[in-house]
Every structure is written in structure tokens, then in C-alpha cells.
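Design a sequence for this backbone.
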């Protein structure tokens, strides 16, 4: 049956969810409901109503390393293998659509959700995401890259406005999505909660129609984040297909009325309904068991896949005196609560009920230490960060009295530090752990620090350890992978996919992140991550692309032609290993504003001891382009470019000039850009910001009248005592819960950050937009009008829902 054969109401019904995790079906048309599930690094398959924050129970599934860790592998092939395993598990658990990968650019290291995102660079983010998408969809399961776009902070994430200039947006924040869409052809894509330059992402015509659909030829389904739709009519008109979770009958009525009044073109409604139907067809499998579970074989096989990915993603950051790898028979004093109770993922909607768990202590106690002997174990620190000198003293005494040859200390960020719903307040690991490390240094025994964190941390203490192995948030097989890395059975080959600064204050956006009011101005422009540190000549602790190895590699014989760059990489050591070859380009002098160099390609090369390989990295449509704001098009500057091969963004091993016959002559950067010309974004003036944007940036003033899109947290400034009480109560409740449990209260944080209009999108029609309008009268000082309007609206809405339900039932 053709979409046009459905009634108007039936077509409108397809544009919102039936439940927390299910789309609506149209049985008489053979359009089946499909199941959506969180799953960027493991399936979070909830049954029944479930929740969107990772709080409720979910079926056991493999917990793979998070995106921020997998990106350190610089290996799209590993991402593809992970995607294939995710797709297989999705089918076993009755899931048609996996909500991932997360691929927003890491604008600032404090974003609470950075562990779910790949990189500060669009080449790494786009190519790694493409690998995962290809793997998932090879199993006839839809992948859903997210969050499109500019979702850079968790604070006020449902009611923030990302203000960014067009060139920066396209070159930095959208290019990763473009690479993934063009290469992997995802069947779906998820929008972000925030506004972009004043328009919500889920109804942003420039983003969804002009760029995504018209320029990139995306023909799949666009889904809102949960509760992230503002207007059902605007979303359908501008290219978004499906509101989730349960917008209910009110949204259907709005769509039908809009078509009848001419506010929404019927062809747009039909296009959105067809996109939903297409995804249902692509993923439909009558043999799929929606109540299924993983088999033991899957658990075993995918645990090994998770381990292999963890091994390829770990980054060796320090190895003084060649302490690592540890020799067989080494006696180890194991220290740290995380060695006993591992932390291998973040908190929030991506949290997986891991099918298996393992720990360093457990494996070593069971004789699975890969040749290492457990000499002693000590907890060393309080998990929640409280300073406890007794634990430190006991650890020092245990290490001193043991026969250990080396101390392996497992330290890092706790569960409260990295979570959806809140941003980190600083970059430090808990002081209790730093105190422990300094005390262990006094024992005189060499220290290997195994660092657990999904994002960069300050490392002022690095001199207190001889070796530092960063395993990130490495999934359920992190412990066994760590042991293989420590013993040299696997040679560390990971390289950082984001810069680690000396201190947070060095970060380009540290002075204005996160935005505490509605408007978040991306005043640093394109100078994010290494683009800033190199251009402004600010030293970093570890540069983008950095990673040590037990092997040593040399780069020779660079040759550049129109096809790309070729060179020879040699492993001139006695140890097998893998090198990450990174291609950077620098534009002709005297041209448009650009960072000093930009990554434009990479490849990971496996090399046996003493082996040489010829490596080619091709040029493509992204290599030399820039967005020309004057013509509103992509252009390439003619002239002499510099092609560079690096082992990281700072360490350039080879370089060569290359003449590009472009589409335009070099155009000198506008001198009015001032400090931007040297990347000195912290010194940018208001006029220089205006020059970057091409217009004056206007910010929202203090809220005087609260609307449906102002978050409940903003009610603290309301003239209404009731509204102030609600905001204060929720804030105190969250703080009390976190102090009590050691974990953030995600439900309360979600409500605090939630604008009232989301109530009409997440209650299956029980609350409609008219009732929301009544609610916001309360913070505006009209309590009784608000309550009265809400009650009256409740009964009118319930009556309308009964009529719509009956009409829809009769049609079907």
C-alpha cells in the first residue's frame, strides 16, 4: 500500500513514537513497528516503559569500549568489527535501530558526555563513525549517528543556543557528520536538543534540508532526541521524521490541522511518513525475537571482540627507562579500588548492563596475570574521593612489606565525574588518589599507573610514576586487555584523539564554557583542540595524535602527487608493533584564515620487527577545501601547500611542498580578524568576533518572561515563590542524592534542564501544548491562572485524545 493511500491521521501518527522505545505501526498497510535502543558502545535494551537515562534495568549485553576510547585506536576497521558485533546483539535482543554512534566534536574537555564522542577532529570522528555504522548496518540494523549538531555541553542542553559562524560550523562541527553520511550511508540520524543560531536542531531547515538532505543527499530518517522536538509541524516541514518518545495524539492533531490549513505541505508530511516506513522495511525481520537474549556463544565471542578493541585503543603516555613491558615472573603490588571494582563506562543513557565483568585483582588472584605474580593488594583510596589517610598508610605499608618488584596503581575518574546530564567542574582526578601516588613514590619501588578516564585529566603528578598507560573507559574486557598490554603480549598502539592540556586554563574555550545562560557563543571559532594549541603556540601536556610504543618507527621517502602522499614506514626495533601515520596540510601563505595545520588523513600500519611498508594516504574532497562565506560554497586555494607526515600533531617527521590548482587564488585574511590571525582567541575583541561572524552577535538578555523553552532551572529567578521553590527543591534534591550515593541523580538533572514544552513530548499525549502554556504562567506570577488553565486543559485534552484514539482505531 502506498503512503498516499493512508488517511491523513494515519500518516501523522507515524511521525511520533508509540512508547518509550517503539515506533507506531500501521497494520493494514504492512508498516511494522520497530524498536529503538541506546547502544553507542553496547545495547541498553529495556523492556516495557523503560527510561531514557540509563537508570532502569536492561538486558545483559556486551559493554564495548566507549567512543572516546575507541577513537584512540585510529582504526576504522576495529570500529567496524565493533559495529558488526553490536548489530548481531541488536538482532538477538529484538532491536531494529541502534542510537549511535555519538560523534560531536569535543569543543572542551569538561563536557560530561565527551566519553561518548570520538574526537576534537572531524576526520577522526567521521571515519571512525563510518566504520561503526557500516558494521551495524551489515546486520540489517539501522545505525543513528548523533547528536546533529553542535551539542557541546550538558548544562542546559535542552534549552541552549549554540551560536557559531557558518564557516566554523561547516569545516569543524559538520564535516565529521558529512564524512560518515557520505561514506557509510546511515539509515537514520538523530538531532540534538539545542538550538543552532536560534533555531532548534530538530526543526532547523538550514541543517536538515539545505545541508543534510540537499547537499549530502541523505535520504534516511531523522529522529529527535528523547523529548528534543519543539514543534511537530516545524520538524516535519523542515526535514525531521520522527518525534520520540511518546508525543501522543496532540502532535498528530497538530500535523493534521497544519496540513488542512496549508501551514504544512502535504508532500512534506508524506515524505516524513515514507522515511519512517522505509526504515521499518529495511529493518523488518519476522524471525526477530523482541524478548530475546544473548547466547553464551555470543557472550564469549563478543567479549573477545571487546578485549581486542580495548587492546588497540590503549595509549602509552610515559615509559621512563623502558619499565614496560613487565617481564614474566615480575611480582606486582596492585593498588587502587578500581583494580578490584573496575570502572569501564560512563553514566547516563549509554550505560550497559554488562554481560560479563572482570578486574585486575580478580584475574591475578585466579592465576590469569599473564606471567605476573600478585605480591599484594591494597585499596589505597576512597572510591568517592574522600581523603582517608588510613587507606594511604595501609597501602604504603603493604607495598613496603611486600616482595613486589613494581607497583601497578589503578587510578582515575569516578562514576560521578563523567555522565550525561552534567559537565565536569574541573580536570583533576580526586586529590585522595594524588596523595596516594605521592606516598607510593616514597616506597622507592617503580610505579606503573593505569589511568581510567573517558576524557583528559590534569597530570601535574606525572613525575611520580615511571610509566603511564591510559586505558580510557575500555569496556568489560578492560582488565584482561590491560594485563596483555603491561606484559607486552600486545604492544600499545593507541594515539590520543584529543589534546591533553597542561592545565584547564590553557583550553581555548575555558573562559566561557559552559554557557550558564541560553546563548553559548563559539567565540573560539575554528581554533579548537590542536588547531588552537599549534596556532597560538600554547604548549600541551600531550599533543593530539600522541602515543608511545614498545617499538620504534622511522618515516622516509615522502612522495606527493595529485593522488596523495606516499612514504615508507619502518619498524627499526626488535618488537612487532603498529604505527599511526598522520597526514596534515598547511595552506598557502597569505590565504584565508586557517590553523597552522590540519589533519586530512591517517592510516594504522602493522609492522613486524625490522619490517618496512609502503604507505599511501590519498587526497579527497576534504583535503584542501574551505567554506567561502562570500560565495556560500566550498573552494580550494591555488598555490603551494605543505604536506606533512606526523607521528602526532607536534611531531612532523616528513614534509614536502605541493602545488594545488584550486578554484580560487589565495585570498588574504581580513586584517580586522585581529587576534584570530594568530589563533589567540582568548584575546579576541567584540569587533573581531563580529568580523568572524559577518554580523554582530546578539545575546539574549535576562529572562523577564518565562516561556515553554526556558528550563525549569531558570525558574530560580522567577517572581513566583512557587516556581522558585520547585527549582530550589530539585537542585537540593539532586545534591543530596549525589552526596548519598556517590552518583549523579540523572532524573532530577534531566527535569532541571528540561524546558516545560518537553512535557508535551514525553507523556504520550497526557499533557499537550496548551497545558504547557498554562504551566508557564506559574513562573510568570500567575499561579491560579496557571493551575486553572492546566486543569481545564487536562479535561479538554483527555476528551480530544479519546476522539482521536477512536478515529485512528476505526481507520486501522
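Sequence:
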Amino acid at each position: 500500500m502506498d503512503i498516499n493511500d493512508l488517511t491523513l491521521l494515519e500518516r501523522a501518527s507515524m511521525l511520533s513514537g508509540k512508547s518509550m522505545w517503539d515506533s507506531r505501526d500501521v497494520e493494514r498497510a504492512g508498516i511494522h513497528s520497530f524498536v529503538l535502543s541506546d547502544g553507542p558502545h553496547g545495547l541498553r535494551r529495556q523492556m516495557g516503559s523503560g527510561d531514557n537515562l540509563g537508570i532502569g534495568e536492561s538486558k545483559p549485553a556486551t559493554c564495548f569500549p566507549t567512543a572516546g576510547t575507541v577513537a584512540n585506536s585510529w582504526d576504522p576497521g576495529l570500529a567496524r568489527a565493533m559495529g558488526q558485533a553490536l548489530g548481531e546483539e541488536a538482532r538477538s535482543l529484538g532491536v531494529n535501530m541502534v542510537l549511535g554512534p555519538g560523534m560531536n566534536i569535543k569543543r572542551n574537555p569538561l563536557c560530561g558526555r565527551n566519553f561518548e564522542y570520538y574526537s576534537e577532529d572531524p576526520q577522526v570522528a567521521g571515519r571512525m563513525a563510518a566504520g561503526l555504522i557500516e558494521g551495524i548496518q551489515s546486520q540489517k540494523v539501522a545505525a543513528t549517528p548523533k547528536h546533529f549538531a553542535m551539542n557541546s555541553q550538558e548544562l542546559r542542553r535542552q534549552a541552549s543556543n549554540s551560536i557559531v559562524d557558518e564557516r566554523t560550523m561547516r569545516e569543524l562541527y559538520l564535516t565529521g557528520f558529512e564524512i560518515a553520511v557520505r561514506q557509510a550511508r546511515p539509515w537514520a540520524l538523530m538531532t540534538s536538543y539545542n538550538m543552532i543560531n536560534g533555531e532548534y536542531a530538530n526543526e532547523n531547515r538550514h541543517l536538515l534540508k539545505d545541508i543534510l538532505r540537499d547537499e549530502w543527499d541523505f535520504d534516511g530518517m531523522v529522529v529527535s532526541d528523547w523529548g528534543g522536538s519543539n514543534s511537530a509541524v516545524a520538524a516535519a516541514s523542515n526535514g525531521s521524521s520522527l518525534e520520540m518518545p511518546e508525543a501522543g495524539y496532540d502532535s498528530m492533531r497538530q500535523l493534521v490541522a497544519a496540513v488542512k490549513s496549508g501551514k504544512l505541505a502535504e508532500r512534506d508530511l508524506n515524505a516524513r511518513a515514507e522515511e519512517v516506513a522505509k526504515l521499518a522495511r529495511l529493518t523488518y525481520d519476522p524471525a526477530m525475537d523482541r524478548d530475546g537474549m544473548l547466547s553464551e556463544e555470543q557472550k564469549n565471542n563478543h567479549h573477545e571482540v571487546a578485549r581486542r578493541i580495548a587492546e588497540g585503543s590503549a595509549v602509552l603516555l610515559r615509559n621512563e627507562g623502558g619499565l614496560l613491558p613487565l617481564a614474566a615472573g615480575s611480582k606486582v603490588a596492585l593498588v587502587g579500588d578500581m583494580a578490584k571494582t573496575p570502572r569501564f563506562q560512563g553514566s547516563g543513557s549509554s550505560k550497559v548492563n554488562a554481560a560479563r565483568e572482570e578486574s585486575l585483582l580478580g584475574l591475578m588472584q585466579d592465576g590469569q596475570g599473564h606471567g605476573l605474580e600478585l605480591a599484594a593488594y591494597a585499596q589505597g583510596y576512597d572510591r568517592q574521593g574522600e581523603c582517608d589517610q588510613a587507606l594511604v598508610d595501609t597501602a604504603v605499608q603493604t607495598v613496603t612489606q611486600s616482595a613486589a618488584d613494581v607497583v601497578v596503581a589503578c587510578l582515575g575518574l569516578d562514576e560521578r565525574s563523567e555522565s550525561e546530564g552534567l559537565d565536569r567542574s574541573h580536570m583533576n582526578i580526586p586529590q585522595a588518589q594524588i596523595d596516594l601516588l605521592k606516598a607510593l613514590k616514597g616506597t622507592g619501588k617503580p610505579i606503573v599507573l593505569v589511568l581510567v578516564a573517558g576524557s583528559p585529566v590534569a597530570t601535574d603528578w606525572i613525575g611520580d610514576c615511571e610509566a603511564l598507560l591510559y586505558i580510557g573507559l575500555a569496556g568489560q574486557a578492560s582488565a584482561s586487555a590491560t594485563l596483555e598490554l603491561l606484559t607486552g603480549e600486545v604492544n600499545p598502539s593507541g594515539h590520543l584523539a584529543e589534546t591533553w592540556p597542561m592545565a584547564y586554563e590553557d583550553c581555548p574555550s575555558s573562559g566561557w564554557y559552559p554557557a550558564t545562560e541560553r546563548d553559548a557563543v563559539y567565540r573560539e571559532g575554528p581554533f579548537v583542540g590542536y588547531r588552537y594549541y599549534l596556532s597560538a603556540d600554547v604548549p600541551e601536556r600531550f599533543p593530539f595524535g600522541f602515543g608511545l610504543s614498545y617499538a620504534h618507527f622511522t618515516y622516509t621517502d615522502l612522495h606527493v602527487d595529485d593522488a596523495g602522499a606516499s612514504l615508507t614506514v619502518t619498524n627499526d626495533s626488535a618488537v612487532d608493533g603498529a604505527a599511526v601515520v598522520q597526514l596534515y596540510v598547511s595552506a598557502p601563505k597569505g590565504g584565508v584564515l586557517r590553523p597552522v595545520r590540519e589533519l586530512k588523513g591517517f592510516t594504522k600500519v602493522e609492522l613486524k620487527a625490522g619490517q618496512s611498508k609502503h604507505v599511501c594516504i590519498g587526497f579527497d574532497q576534504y583535503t584542501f577545501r574551505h567554506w567561502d562565506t562570500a560565495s556560500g560554497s566550498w573552494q580550494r586555494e591555488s598555490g603551494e601547500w605543505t604536506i606533512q607526515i606526523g607521528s602526532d600533531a607536534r611531531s612532523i617527521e616528513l614534509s614536502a611542498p605541493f602545488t594545488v590548482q584550486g578554484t580560487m587564488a589565495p585570498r588574504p585574511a581580513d586584517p580586522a580578524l585581529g587576534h584570530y590571525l594568530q589563533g589567540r582567541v582568548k584575546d579576541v575583541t567584540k569587533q573581531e568576533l563580529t568580523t568572524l561572524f559577518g554580523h554582530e552577535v546578539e545575546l539574549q538578555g535576562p529572562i523577564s518572561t518565562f516561556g515553554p523553552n526556558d528550563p525549569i532551572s531558570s525558574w530560580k529567578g522567577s517572581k513566583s515563590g512557587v516556581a522558585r521553590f520547585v527549582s530550589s527543591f530539585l537542585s537540593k534534591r539532586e545534591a543530596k542524592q549525589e552526596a548519598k550515593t556517590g552518583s549523579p541523580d540523572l532524573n532530577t538533572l534531566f527535569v532541571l534542564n528540561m524546558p516545560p514544552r518537553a512535557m508535551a513530548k514525553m507523556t504520550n499525549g497526557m499533557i499537550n501544548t496548551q497545558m504547557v502554556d498554562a504551566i508557564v504562567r506559574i513562573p510568570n506570577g500567575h499561579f491560579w491562572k496557571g493551575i486553572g488553565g492546566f486543569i481545564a486543559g487536562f479535561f479538554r485534552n483527555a476528551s480530544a485524545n479519546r476522539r482521536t484514539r477512536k478515529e485512528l482505531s476505526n481507520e486501522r
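The chain has four domains: 3-283, 315-347+354-491, 551-669, 712-811.
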